[in-house]
Design goal:
Blueprint (H helix, E strand, L loop, with lengths): L10 H6 L5 H5 L2 E5 L3 E7 L13 H18 L6 E12 L7 E11 L3 E9 L5 E13 L4
Antiparallel strand pairs: 1-2, 2-4, 3-6, 4-5, 5-6
Length: 144
C-alpha cells in the first residue's frame, strides 16, 4: 500500500474527480500510482503554451499543484481532513514546445498539519523540465 490510505485507487477514478476543473481544462491526466509516487501528464498545446511557443511556466505550476494535491489527499482520511495548497515554488529548467510533459509527485514529509511534496516534471525523453516543491495544509473537513 505504501503511503496511500487505499491500495485500490485507480487513475480513472481520480480523473472523474477532476471533471469541470482547471486540470480538465488543461488536459491533465492522472496516469499512474505506485507505493510512493503519483504520476500525471499534460499536453503541450494551445492550452498550455506561452506566446513564444514554449510551455507556459504557469501551466507547469498548475500541473505540479494538481498532482501534488491529488497525492496529498490520497494520504488523508477524507471523512476527517483535506489537503489544500499552502505554498508552491518552481524552477523552470528546460523549454518544451510540443508533446507531453510528465509529473511525478513524491512526499518529502507527511505531518499532521502540513505535508511537503516534491514534483519533478519531465519531457517525453525524461529530461527535467521543472522542479517544484509544494506545501500542503491539512485542515479539518468542517473548515473546508
Amino acid at each position: 500500500m505504501g503511503i496511500w490510505r487505499s491500495d485500490a485507487v485507480q487513475p480513472s477514478a481520480l480523473m472523474a474527480l477532476q471533471a469541470g476543473t482547471m486540470a480538465e481544462h488543461l488536459g491533465i491526466e492522472i496516469i499512474g500510482i505506485d507505493g510512493d509516487a503519483l504520476r500525471a501528464r499534460m499536453p503541450v498545446d494551445h492550452r498550455t503554451l506561452q506566446p513564444h511557443g514554449r510551455l507556459h511556466g504557469g501551466a507547469s505550476v498548475a500541473l505540479a499543484e494538481t498532482v501534488g494535491s491529488v497525492a496529498a489527499n490520497l494520504t488523508l482520511d477524507p471523512a476527517e481532513s483535506i489537503g489544500v495548497g499552502l505554498e508552491i515554488n518552481a524552477n523552470h529548467v528546460r523549454p518544451v514546445k510540443d508533446g507531453f510533459v510528465y509529473a511525478t509527485a513524491r512526499a518529502e514529509a507527511l505531518g499532521r498539519t502540513t505535508q511537503i511534496w516534491s514534483i519533478r516534471i519531465t519531457d517525453e525523453h525524461e529530461r527535467l523540465v521543472c522542479l517544484s516543491r509544494f506545501t500542503v495544509a491539512v485542515i479539518p473537513v468542517t473548515r473546508a
